[in-house]
Specification:
By secondary structure, the protein is an alpha+beta fold. It is built from 3 helices and 4 strands. The radius of gyration is 13 Å and the shape is globular.
Amino acid sequence: MKAVITVIGKDNVGILSKVSNICAEYNANIVDVTQSVLQDMFAMIMMVDISSINADFVILGEKLDELGKSMGLSIHTMHQDIFNSMHRI
């Protein structure tokens, strides 16, 4: 099982590190990541393997959402099944 994590907001130091640390805390393995900085806006998409996470998937999403709020970022965590269903037309 995989999940997609998106991060959007004003660029500042440590965004990738802090998101990665939360993923590691919950044993969510980052399998792919792409990021860009456009002027002062940061955008990142992560694909994480959640087959071995050590808590409920919802808790991981809530923790990342809390991080986003504390940093002024929008962090969205979506299960791959939902992502695939939304994009299957």
